[in-house]
Amino acid sequence: MRALAIDLGGSHANCGIVEERAILANDAIAVDCAEGLRPLLPLIVDTFDQLAKRTKLSLADCKGVAVGFPGLVDARVGRVLSTNAKYEDAPKVDFAAWGREALGLPLRIENDARMALLGECYAGAAMGVTEVVMMTLGTGIGGVAMIEGRLLRGKHAQAGCLGGHFPILFTGRCCTCGAIGCAEAEAAGWSLPLILREWPGASGSTLSKYQKVGFKELFEEAAAGDEVALAVRDRCLSVWCADAIALVHAYDPEVIVIGGGVMKSAANIIPIIQSHVRKHAWTPWGKVQVRAAELGNDAALLGAVPLLSEKLD
Amino acid sequence: MRALAIDLGGSHANCGIVEERAILANDAIAVDCAEGLRPLLPLIVDTFDQLAKRTKLSLADCKGVAVGFPGLVDARVGRVLSTNAKYEDAPKVDFAAWGREALGLPLRIENDARMALLGECYAGAAMGVTEVVMMTLGTGIGGVAMIEGRLLRGKHAQAGCLGGHFPILFTGRCCTCGAIGCAEAEAAGWSLPLILREWPGASGSTLSKYQKVGFKELFEEAAAGDEVALAVRDRCLSVWCADAIALVHAYDPEVIVIGGGVMKSAANIIPIIQSHVRKHAWTPWGKVQVRAAELGNDAALLGAVPLLSEKLD
């Protein structure tokens, strides 16, 4: 199957033409997601026209369009249900109508983390595995689940996609989602500066030379031996380990795929989470494997074919 | 449908003859679960014979036997997968063969908390609701999920039944399950004495007059104004609230049913969890209702008919 795929991110919209497990061509458009989705839609059409020209492919030969969206999405009705500071106008967009009118193709839309999980299962770290959760560690924390070969969705499409919003510190800080002490509120890109602001001795840390501390800076300064950076890094690792246990106990996976921006900064995240899960998860059937995501930014695009092939109830 | 139902607890095995939403007769056998299940099986058969005589019903008119077991169970293969200090010989018992030979009936077995959820959905607090989680607050914490009208099980039958084992304090105490800071390790009957042992000022508390403190004593002394009891009670409530949020974010329910021994001690648990969930759960579709379980110790028995009626894959 050949298909169009769109991965809507906070800073870029990645558009690609895919065929089965290959991306034939793609281009990322720089976006300002605060401006909403509507101004972006014509640019996406232009991009696909250029990609078609460049590859000498006809869009009409594609079977459909798959869209990954950073928010709550119900794929069965083709709508965005709730946004989280990105593309606030998306719940009002009729995606199916846009796909039909602007691209002449049937369209499906799904949460971007679910799309990435579909991609990793189809062409990446979890090929052939039916019981999978994927954690995405970055600005936020994604946590999505596939059970017996199908994405877990639930009636309001919220099941199996809020794994970054399990409270792992019941006395913790407020999360953007409204809950308290979510994994995301305790160890994600957006909460890291808040954690450092309150950390005892942070002003004496080598981290204080940065205007904004991200995981790159945190892992670098920890590796250089800064004590605050080491302590905060280890706390983040503990939070991710606890969240991994929660995901195992919630969804019964055989494989945890871990991706996201953090993975670029630290080679030893996988062994630490693997060791923790091996030691602490209650899985009498055997041991859960922890694997690094393999597809990077291509994961959601490569989820297009499985999404378009899925039999939706 | 008329059926036999067995609820295997730590101190009693409750045996009943049920017909649809009614328990026609039942008797509880005192058991020592440390002795295992095998010595108990003939007593269960005797009990059903007596119940049949008393009610002038024939066991042969029943459609089957449903067993609720306090451990990990795979209903699809009819086996106990893992025990947790109760009935350690159960994984070796061939339940289907026993049902056939000793009672002349087909048999199904399921985790006891899942059976109770089936009961509450069929005849109790969640009648007619298809999206439900049930929390059982007692010696341990149960957390089971029904999604789109079906129990969530997963490949190894562990999905949707370990809701008491989500880590809600990643720096917390070791749980009997092997994980760290599970809701159960931070606020259940078995962990309460451990929490009190480490609590600052506990020796000056009115709780110190009890040989063993359970939730009954905790709630009573808190109501009488003891400061330690108040603080520990409020901490338990916060743990349960966080676990409720985790269950909502994991399984997308419309109703949370709360049962278990603790409910006898405290009338205000439901409003506190309801208020927390209303304020903090991320549910753009609407508000999750928190309801008290209605069936008490009968819940698992009344899960018999739905369990026996279920189409198992």
Q: What oligomeric state do these chains adopt?
A: homodimer
- Please provide the count of β strands of chain A: 12
Question: What is the general shape of chain A?
Answer: globular
Question: Structural class of chain A, please?
Answer: alpha/beta
Largest interface, with counts of residues having CB < 8 Å to the other chain, equals: A-B, 50 and 50 residues
The CATH homologous superfamily of the largest domain in chain A is termed ATPase, nucleotide binding domain
Strand order of the largest sheet of chain A: 3-2-1-4-7
Q: Rg of chain A, please?
A: 20 Å
Order of helices and strands of chain A: EEEHEEEHEHEEEHHHHEHEHH
Number of domains of chain A: 2
What is the arithmetic mean of pLDDT of chain A? 95
Characterization of the model:
Two copies of one chain form a homodimer. The first copy, chain A, folds into two domains: 2-118 and 298-309, 2-Layer Sandwich (Nucleotidyltransferase, domain 5); 129-293, ATPase, nucleotide binding domain (Nucleotidyltransferase, domain 5, 2-Layer Sandwich). Chain A is of the alpha/beta class. Chain A has helices spanning 41-55, 95-103, 112-123, 183-186, 192-198, 215-223, 227-251, 269-280, 299-302, 304-309; strands at residues 2-8, 12-19, 22-30, 65-69, 72-74, 79-82, 107-111, 132-137, 141-147, 150-151, 255-259, 289-292. In chain A, 33% of the residues lie in helices and 21% in strands. Chain A has a five-stranded mixed sheet with strand order 3-2-1-4-7.
